[in-house]
Amino acid sequence: MIDVSVVIPVYRSQDSLRELHQRLTKVLISQKLSYEILFIEDCGGDNSWEVITELAESDSMVQGIRLSKNFGQHAATICGFSYSKGRWVFTLDDDLEQAPEYFPDLYNKALQGYDLVYGVNSVRNHKSWRNISSRISRWLFNIAVPSLIDSYNSYRVIRGDIARALVRFESPFPFVDGYLFWLTNRYETVEISHDSRSYGVSNYTFRKLLTHTINIFVTFSDLPLRMATWIGLGTFTLGMVWLMIIVLQYFFGGISVAGYSSIMASILIFGGVQLLVLGIFGEYLGRMNFKSSQKPLFLVGQITEDSK
């Protein structure tokens, strides 16, 4: 057992890996800790794996793991957990927006009796659309998943046995922080700065963020199902009231010719609601099907030790 395992999911970050390794190694050596650095390459299509192999050959503390295909950041992170040996696991992104120099602050806070410590940013140097969408998503998550704090992110120190326990979750739509808050409520935060990206551009598009948000809602909350129930009840009530009004108008002579507009409006309203409710149920049924098929969360294609 070593002190710290550093898990870094890698996706199209060939330009930042050498600097990240240099700065991270300097921090860990200064703390006089036994450590390992695990780079999990998620098949981004650039030369990241060649850089990781080079780092592993020059530094015995580095191990590279390459997945067989692109499984996503959270699956790659959990893969790293499964190979970790540390009493504590430190995770951060590969783009240097999260400075590794803040690790001692999180580590020392964790030693005070916490299972999980996040490095949180008061200001994030993302594009305005991403900051706004992130705030909206986190606000919705607080409603749907009350146990999830709105300051979660990928810069964290986790107790090693808890991190490795995440491998036991079998959902095909993994969410590391959702799993962590299922396993522990002993967490704390430390404020850190958010640096600007020095290399490349963000790999998170609006489509990816939207898909991630939907996965969290459907996997970790029954709020969409409850919303479907209330929508169905509301439209049923509205339809009954509408029917009563039409019947009363008929008996009192208020209806002479059936109206095309009212018929089309009712069809569109109730038809749209039915499709919405069916779509919500379909999302849940689809995830049940994926889980029952027992597809692996990730599959390792290559490890740097194989090439040494």
What do you see in this structure?
By secondary structure, the chain is of the alpha/beta class. The chain has two domains: 2-221 and 297-307, Spore Coat Polysaccharide Biosynthesis Protein SpsA, Chain A (Alpha-Beta Complex), CATH 3.90.550.10; 223-292. 49% of the residues lie in helices and 16% in strands. An eight-stranded mixed beta sheet has the order 7-5-6-4-1-2-3-8, with helices on both faces. The protein starts with a strand and ends in a 5-residue tail after the last strand.
Mean pLDDT: 81
Report the major sheet: 8 strands, mixed
CATH architecture of the largest domain: Alpha-Beta Complex
In angstroms, what is the radius of gyration? Answer: 25 Å
Could you please say which CATH topology of the largest domain applies here? Spore Coat Polysaccharide Biosynthesis Protein SpsA, Chain A
Strand order within the widest sheet?
Answer: 7-5-6-4-1-2-3-8
Q: Using DSSP, what is the number of strands?
A: 8
Q: Into which percent range does the helicity of residues fall?
A: 40-55%
What is the H level of CATH, i.e. the homologous superfamily of the largest domain? Spore Coat Polysaccharide Biosynthesis Protein SpsA, Chain A
Count structural domains. Answer: 2
Portion in beta strands: 15-25%
Low-pLDDT stretches are none
Number of helices: 10
